[in-house]
Design goal:
heterodimer; A: 272 residues; mainly alpha; 71% helix; B: mainly alpha
Chain lengths: 272, 279
Amino acid sequence: MNKRTITLDNGKTVVKPRSKIILPTIIVGVFFIICSFFIPISWYSIRLKEFPVILIKMFSPAPGKTWADYFAYLPTLKDPIMETLRMSFIGSLIGSLAALPFAILSAKNIVKTPWIYQPVRFFLNLVRTIPTLVLAVVAMFFLGLGPLPGIVAISIFTFGIMAKMLYEIIETVDMGPLEALESCGANKLKGFSYAVFPQILPVYLGYFIYNFEINVRSSVILGYVGAGGIGLYINENIGFRYDRVGGIVIVLFVLVVIIQAFTSYVRGKLQW
Amino acid sequence: MIRKKPVTIDLNSPKRVDLTLKQKPKKWISNLILALVVLGLIIYSFVASHIKLNVRDFKPALKVMINGFLNPNTKFLFGLDEASIPYLTMQTVAIAFIGTIVAAVLAIPLGFLTARNVTGKYVSKVGEVILVVIRTFPEVLLALVLIRVVGIGAFTGVLTIGIHSVGMIAKLFAESIENMDRGPLEALDAVGANTIQKIRYGIFPQITAEFLSISLYRFDINVRSATVLGVVSAGGLGTPLIFASQEWNWPTLSAILIAIVIMVIIVDQISSRLRAKLI
């Protein structure tokens, strides 16, 4: 009798199940080792002492300047911040509105024919894989510098994730009201707008705000390639004016915290 | 708001539907204000953005672009050296994978620290603040700072993702610890288990699946952000991506995009299958 079986008082034997954790651990370990071959580390270029130095540079005035100068820089960021907010707002709005019809088309419970929802889903998957950055650069090719390519990139990016989040929600709605309306003779469009849409509306609005928050954060990278917003200022100052970069970080932090507080307030109102 | 006194409705009355409808609370004033505010925001955003369409002649540009996209740079796409796509794609996945593992390991103590039912009200607030700060510090900026510390290359990407992902993984992890069922722990107490046994048999089985699922989900996200991090030369596909796109070198860009799409779809499939198995 091996160690895995336990004999109970009434004579029955219980077999302890084999541990399921060994095989996954080995797979993860092997993959980890394979991956580590792709990460060259040059120990000579690592200067850990630099880390606190840079942080101090970021969150204290530059040499020869006072704290007053440090904080005097922050109000000048008002315009790019407002631009970032506007870009994110318009982009989230356009993307969310455009996502609605595609979400309906790819929801299994509304459109029951696989040859409609499968291609639409594939298209959405494809859109989601393209990095925002590439979207921005391609848009810049046609539209030049400024906020417009940023808005286009944000819209397309929002469209991709919003459509996916929405169709997953549409698939979980209660189908009863829709069936009731259809049995009264409502067509698909009416049935959707009176039975399904009211159910998804709070979630839809919640997702809109969530996307807005993501887009405000991603504006850092958008500005980095020249598509408008606060990122432009980071790109200008990184490398020689760390105090200004630190100021931008503080402003962004405050902004995101405000948006998050707003989000949780609205979510409470929407009961989601 | 003043509510009308509820009227008892005679269910046999032919007007019962109208009566019920009348009882619906009237919120049109607050709805109108909300609609006006939203409309104002929309108008303001469009007007203040000074959107001007200085569109170039679309057609030749579009033709060049489509032509380039249809003829991807095959030498780059199928090359085997360290500067071509297969290597860089694997490197991107490797950055995301090792970064996620680093983050997951770091998230375990931070998650326990932030869980309210483990450390109490005040200590968990400290953990929460740490996590919020980590989450809001922009990833790209973190990479730019770390490049000054550890030098250009994939290792910077690993560290950036490792540090940045802790914010989200630990937060979700703490939530799953907070939602844990206390029953098994009480049962273990009743049979006289010590702390280590309680953790091993009471806590582990409950949260392991969720913890792995959270980490996998984050791995999914990290594969995407590892591409973006390359833009600031933190390794992976991003570096050639940004060069190709700034030169508008469509054949190379097309090759990189093909690689990204395939990579993301494969990772997506694997991780969603695994997550479905876990839950």
